[in-house]
Amino acid sequence: MTAALDGIRVLNLAGPAGAYCGHLLAALGADVIKVEPPEGDRLRYQPPFSATAEGPDFERSLAFAYHHAGQRAVALNGATPEGRDLLLRLAGAVDAVLESAPLGSRGISGDELLERFPSLVVMSITGFGLSGPYSRFQAPDIVAFAMSGLMFIAGDPAKAPVVAPGQQAYVLGSTQAAYGGLMALFDRRATGKGQRVEVSLQEVMAATEHLVVRYSREADLSRRHGGQSTMAPGNSYPCRDGWIHVFITTPQHWHAFRRWIGDPDVLQGDAWDDSTFRRHNIDIIDPFIVAYTSAHTRDELVAEAQALHLPVVPVNHLDDFVAHPHFAVRGTFVETSHPIMGSFRVPGPPYRFEPALLVPPRPAPLFGQHNREVLGELLGLGERQLDELHAGGILLSQPRQAEPGQGAPPLRLSASHAVARARASRLITPQPVGDQRPETKDSGLFHGLRILEFCAHYAGPVAGLLLANHGAQVIKVESATFPDNGRHNMAFFCDFSHSKLGAGLNLKTEMGQLLLQRLVAASDVVIENYAVGVAGRLGIDYERLRRARPDLIMLHLPALGHWGPSRDWVALGPNLMAFTGMTHLWSHPDAVRPVGSQTPYPDYVAASHAVVAVLAALHHRARTGEGCEIELAQAEATAAVLGPLFAGYLVNGEVPRPMGNASPVDAPHGCYRCQGDDAWCTIAVETDEEWQAFGRAIGEPTWTHDPRFATAAGRLANREELDRLVEEWTANYTPRQVMWILQRAGVPAGAVQSNEDLFYDVHLRERGFFTRIDQPEVGPLEYPGPSIRLSATPPGRVQPAPGIGQHNGYVFGELLGLDPEELRRLTAESVLV
């Protein structure tokens, strides 16, 4: 079997912030070599731990095992001259280096590596990037998440904002680092040159959920509304034995939903067809919904609603999702093994390739397990040399560590790197709709790569945008009768469809099908995310399209997958959060109603994984000449980013409960009220040294010397009292005051930023994060720029989102060779629209 990334070798120096990146690359077949410091990776000391295995705690962490499956492990002391030399030699023997802690702490820097090894790709994951006022801030997951704007809109409005479960800033940042690294490696195939891939966790998360454009458009300050989404009804509702999640978007769905709950007289009339009107009057709608749902069981309600093609799903706990028959049939959870913990199940990779391009599940390594194998194979060291390195403490087979929570040092997110050049803001000139030729100046790493996008709304269009951001020519194919339903709000539509070309093609005609075949023959990748069966009925199926392009790469993004008993279920991003168990966990411990977030977060998870899959397929095609078909079920991608939590349940049988902003290993760790209206900050103390620095920074009040708080174990045991005392201090300061006071002392802290704060964030402004686009229908607005930065390859050209058929003259004329008369005739016959 040939894996997608056969022949690619990665040196993994990352801590928790980059762990999921190594996980993704290893599953796709890269040889990922995990290099740990003498104390071991911080994830070795984080729960969940296997309760059934015997052995040291650092070998029983399911969090470490999930994220490092299939990797080889080397443990060495890079602080010594000999260890530094080994690290440099290892870096010279690989294709890419992954870092999320400053390489300087290991005796080398990313700049030194790039200077020594010009063909090397260095993937740097930091909290705030390599430049700007916050570049040296420390950023554990909760701090990066708070500063991104997403936390402010998550949770109960009567309580503190709440961070996402499963360290999602780390996970999504890692996913985008994986596709950034694969982009740079793809470029190296053509140029022979490496480069720096820069990932800012703040920017990755801030580019989601229209946070920037909401404020840019009409100074709309987004606030928490509990579980209520921006669409309405869009919330969790009680039933006799639990909760269901409802997410109604279109007028058609609303009419069917209204009839389902009894067709109340007060909800009649055209005004209710508008989702914004419904959201502003949700207090009138909700009692009718609750009256109906409370009288039925969860399964009854879901079966009735899905029979009407309504987006209604159960609000699951993790065990409900694992037990669902659809995922049992699909084999979503796969068997893996470990030398100490034995066999257990975890979520498998979220994508399926045909032909198969993934490696079978492989165990995570023990500490230092592959010292001899790796150094012998890559550096040619003999047994005598290896014995001397072990005897001298340069190579280690046991970590120098204390018990969990007793001082295992964090692998810190920081930016002790040279300042990178900030991008300048770009003002884009509007373009009228019509048969228009796009700008053709070479721009971006993927210039020359052509992608056909048959997608609607979020996951598919966002995947297309991530590729267009780096120069791919993405042609968005629609028709007047089957447009992207995201066009109902052109400001938001531009957010995930700018920089694309617009082609209007009626696929229900014979000539439309012939033109589709010719368009596919001129393209590299096809992406579709229609409801199951729709693409096939439109002639957009892999077997048919590959006749036109045998090495075609085709990506499908169904909600639950193309096969399985529930494949026809209607489920959108917020539904998938509820269905997978994320909504249940994204709440405070005492929450009565499942709250979660009002964002379609799974759409961004699926889109980022989709680009990883497409890039892996491009690497495979470049090496073998073969195309492939990829199925990425969005529910399975969402489960994958909760992998350690699922592993904990599957091994120990204990269903995880919501933790709110608490950490299982660190305290104080939470979200604290500050001076001002709905003003909050996050603080995350991860070591005893940081605790002492915290005390000094706030003036050493008596309680900071309380023996109960002297150790991590003591602080955890007295967490509630400690949080109360911390909040007594933060209440005297604004969120930014708290952030600056603590960060200057080396203590991780961050303001919980609203989208208004994000819009005026001095750090993001200095880094040129915002891109100004003059979308014809809405005027000039600011949007997030690319969330991945490549040091040697500029981003692609930025243009407004296209109108339907705006570039027909270019697509069907210049690309396919139709003359003007043919174009006019086909337009008159409604083949081109």
Spatial order of the strands forming the largest sheet: 3-2-1-4-5-6-24
Low-confidence stretches: 402-433
Q: What is the rounded distance between the termini?
A: 44 Å
Which shape, going by the Cα principal axes? globular
Total number of β-strand segments?
24
Question: How many distinct helices?
Answer: 34
Strand content: 5-15%
| Whole-number mean pLDDT | 92
Sheet with the most strands, sense and barrel status: 7 strands, mixed
Gyration radius over CA? 26 Å
Give the helix/strand class.
Answer: alpha/beta
Helix content: 25-40%
Produce the secondary structure layout.
Blueprint: E1 9-12, H1 19-27, E2 31-36, H2 62-67, E3 72-75, H3 81-91, E4 96-99, H4 110-116, E5 121-126, H5 141-147, H6 168-191, E6 196-200, H7 201-206, H8 211-218, E7 234-239, E8 242-247, H9 251-260, H10 275-280, H11 282-293, H12 298-307, E9 312-314, H13 318-323, H14 325-330, E10 333-338, E11 342-347, E12 351-354, H15 371-379, H16 383-391, E13 450-454, H17 459-468, E14 473-478, H18 490-497, E15 501-504, H19 510-521, E16 525-528, H20 534-537, H21 542-545, E17 553-556, H22 573-580, H23 582-585, H24 601-624, E18 628-632, H25 634-640, H26 643-652, E19 669-673, E20 680-684, H27 688-697, H28 712-717, H29 719-730, H30 735-744, E21 749-751, H31 755-759, H32 762-766, E22 770-775, E23 779-784, E24 788-790, H33 808-815, H34 820-828
Parallel strand pairs: 1-2, 1-4, 2-3, 4-5, 5-6, 13-14, 13-16, 14-15, 16-17, 17-18
Antiparallel strand pairs: 6-24, 7-8, 8-9, 10-11, 12-18, 19-20, 20-21, 22-23
Helix pairs in contact: 1-6, 6-24, 17-24, 22-25, 24-25
